[in-house]
Amino acid sequence: MGWFWNDSTASGPAKDPFHRLNPDVREFLLRESPLKPAPAPAPAPTASTAAEPALSSPSQPTTPSKYGNRYADIWEQYRSPHAQEATRSAQEQLSDIIQAYKWRKGAIGRAALENCADQQTALYNCYQNGTVRERMTTCSAYNHKLQNCYMTQAKLLRTLGYMSDFTRAPEVDEKIQMYADKMYQEEEAAAAAASGSGSGSGSESPL
C-alpha cells in the first residue's frame, strides 16, 4: 500500500496518528470515519504561571471522594479515559480510526440494502418465476435496478452523514436512513414520469 503513506519526513508531533499520512488520505479518513483523533494535550504551565497563587479559585478537596482515604489504593490505580487515550501510540489511534471507518462502511452497506428491499424481492421473484428470456439473461434488468438502488442509497447515506458520529442518538441515523430512501424514491418517480411523458409524446401522430 505505497499510496497510504507520505514519503516526506513527518513534520507533525509523534502523537498525531495522521502525521505520516498522505494529505488526501488524511482528509478522507477525517471525513469518513466516525472516530476522530484525540485532541492534542494542552501545554504544561510555565514556572511563572505555576508559581502564581490561585487567589480567586476555590480550594480543591484533598480527597477524591466523600469516603476519604478508605479507597485511596483504588483511586491510585484509576486512569481517566483521556489519560488512557494520551498514552496510546499514534499507530494504535490510527488503527482505531481505520476500524471505525470500516465499521461505518459496513453499516452504510447494510442500510442501503434495507432501503432496497423492494428491488431485492423483485430480483428473487425473477429468479423463481421469471420468464425464460429473463432467466437466460440471469434477470439482468432486475440486477441492474438493484445495483443502481444500492449505489445511489449508499451515496446518499454517506453524503447525509449516516453513522458519522458515535455520540448522537440512534434516532438521528434512523431518520437519515428514511430520508435517503425518500430521496431515492422521489428521484425514481420523477425519472419514470419523465420517461413516460417522453414515450407518450413520441407516440402521438402528426396532424
Automatic annotation (TrEMBL):
Biased composition (Low complexity): 45-59
Protein name: Uncharacterized protein
Biased composition (Polar residues): 1-11
Region (Disordered): 1-20, 30-68
